[in-house]
Amino acid sequence: METRIFDAVTRRLREGKRAYWVLLDPDDFSVDQAAQIALESQRCGVHALLIGGSLLHSNHFDEFVAAVKKSTELPVLLFPGDSTQLSTHADALLYLSLVSGRNPSNLIGEHVKAAPLIKDLGIEPIPTAYMLVESGAVSSVEFMSNTRPLPRTKPAIAVAHALAAQYMGMKLIYLEAGSGAKQSVPPEMIQMVKSQVAVPVIVGGGIRDSATVVEKLEAGADIIVTGNMLRHENGISLMKEIAAAVNRF
Ligand code: 1GP
């Protein structure tokens, strides 16, 4: 199976560096806004863009992905909430299995529906263990997937899930507090997962400033994801600050 995009987006990590990925939810921005943010992201040192959401209300998904791809040289990765969020304009997709839950649709069902289309469209799938972590409120992922998040004070449970995912061949572990989370993934959990698994660890959900980013990086996060924060008035300057913090680390 082709791993060209996976190899490209993890090259920094193999050089001992960390990465910063920015999530664009098509419900949050117009196509023009997304293109502008993509351009700014590249200028300020972001390493890849994710596109997707747990539940889409807008109907401009394909156009949105195309506009983002056209306005930047950054890798564009789909971050699909379900098997309908596919586009030929993306470079790759995170083939997410919600391993923290026990809902067969999110473990294999949506994957089966999407697989023939992924092959047809020629998008590179990157097998990713998606682990939802309790964050102080019910997240969209928790509600939409009808699953329970991992308890935030039980890092050993997170480690067992991450190891199982690695043994099943998944290439990335995504520790997710949920978009707009009140509490981001605890450093103790990141540290314990990172110390036990050999694959890169992504951390996202509720990260809105560079101090929190440094806390996650010090705990061992390989890739930081922010999304929601871009909706704020000073979103672009926050993104610049976070990119600088990750690139300095
Ligand atoms: C959500 O991890 C991402 O899936 C990003 O979360 O929107 O809270 O930054 P935020």
Short overview:
The protein has 249 residues and is of the alpha/beta class. It has one domain (4-248): FMN-linked oxidoreductases (TIM Barrel).
Instruction: Give the helix tally.
Output: 9
Instruction: Report the span from N to C terminus.
Output: 32 Å
- Which ligands, by name, code or SMILES, are bound? SN-glycerol-1-phosphate
Question: Hey, roughly how much beta strand do the residues contain?
Answer: 15-25%
The CATH topology is TIM Barrel
CATH level 1 class label? Alpha Beta
Radius of gyration: 16 Å
* Main sheet: strands, sense, barrel: 8 strands, parallel, barrel
Mean pLDDT across the residues is 96
From the helix content, strand content and strand pairing, which structural class follows?
A: alpha/beta
Biggest sheet strand order reads 1-2-3-4-5-6-7-8
Q: What would CATH call the architecture?
A: Alpha-Beta Barrel
Order of helices and strands: HEHEHEEHEHHEHEHEH
Strand count: 8
Number of domains: 1
At the fourth level of CATH, the homologous superfamily is FMN-linked oxidoreductases
Shape: globular
How much helicity do the residues have? 40-55%
Report the uncertain regions: none
